[in-house]
């Protein structure tokens, strides 16, 4: 994979059941934006091994936990501020 394609990936590009990754966009270093791949021959699906699937699942779980912790901290801070009023 090209660097711009890797940087253009999103979680929705991963099919965990089929162990595939759809490559269909890239991050341009010139425009600093995301763009669809120009030709259909560049759009493709990649199959990844079980170890990659496990690493992605672990990372997704960690992100979800961190998000949950952050939401709890924000809600606690808001509740504390409201309670003091």
UniProtKB/TrEMBL annotation:
Start and end residues of each Tyr recombinase domain: 1-85
GO molecular function: DNA binding
InterPro entries linked to this entry: DNA_brk_join_enz (IPR011010), Integrase-like_cat_sf (IPR013762), Integrase_catalytic (IPR002104)
GO biological process: DNA integration; DNA recombination
Keyword terms of this UniProt record: DNA recombination
Record's protein name: Tyr recombinase domain-containing protein
Keyword Cytoplasm attributed: no
Keyword Nucleotidyltransferase: no
Gene3D superfamilies from the UniProt entry: Intergrase catalytic core
Superkingdom per UniProt: Bacteria
């Amino acid at each position: 994979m090209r660097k711009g394609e890797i940087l253009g990936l999103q979680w929705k590009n991963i099919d965990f059941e089929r162990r595939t990754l759809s490559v269909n966009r890239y991050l341009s270093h010139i425009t600093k934006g995301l763009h669809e791949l120009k030709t259909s021959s560049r759009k493709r699906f990649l199959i990844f091994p079980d170890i990659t699937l496990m690493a992605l699942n672990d990372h997704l779980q960690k992100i979800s936990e961190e998000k949950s912790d952050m939401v709890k901290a924000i809600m606690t801070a808001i509740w504390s501020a409201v309670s003091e009023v």
